[in-house]
Amino acid sequence: YPDGRLNSAELTLPFPNGSFDAVICASLFTHLETLSACERYVREVTRLLIAGGIFYTSWFRFPPNELSSSAARTVLPEADILSLVRGFELVCAAGGETAGRDDQWEMVLRRASSLS
Questions:
Q1: How many other CB atoms sit within 10 Å of the CB of residue 75?
Q2: Helices in 1-116 by DSSP H: which ranges?
Q3: Which one, of 89, 12, 78, 1, lies nearest residue 45 by Cα?
Q4: Mean per-residue pLDDT for 3-27?
Q5: What average pLDDT does range 88-107 have in this prediction?
Q6: Quick check: 115 pLDDT over 70?
Q7: What is the rounded distance in angstroms from the CA atom of residue 106 to the CA atom of residue 60?
């Protein structure tokens, strides 16, 4: 787009399937505004990772935060976040237990061996 913004619904990163052992999305999902935008990015990460690849991500979740669809601070229900990453195994998680300004729920996930 001329103003430098990507349309999240059309995001396709310019790499072949299974190109990466790991993908880091630090503080990305905290600014995407909608569940559908987050879903598109998670699908791209899934496509790009090898089976067993690692996905680091961070979120603001409800609770403890108030729901928000602002680009400044996107907050999604925990159940929706877990649904988005259902094709991954949770390796570890930390933070996100308060509504503090920078207290993001950090997750390290492993892509499933096969997609169902």
A1: 19
A2: 35-48, 78-84
A3: 12
A4: 86
A5: 96
A6: no
A7: 9
Rounded CA separation 60/48 (Å): 24
Q: Which amino acid is at 84?
A: L
Tokens of 112: 């499933």
DSSP SS3 for 35: helix
Name the band, by pLDDT with cuts 50, 70 and 90, for residue 113: confident
Assigned token pair, 90: 């949770």
Backbone angles phi, psi at 11, to 5 degrees: -60, 125
pLDDT band at residue 108, thresholds of 50, 70 and 90? very high
pLDDT of residue 11: 82
Can you tell me whether residue 72 is helix, strand or coil? coil
Query: Tokens 């690849």 sit at which residue?
Result: 53
Under 8 Å between Cβ of 32 and 42: no
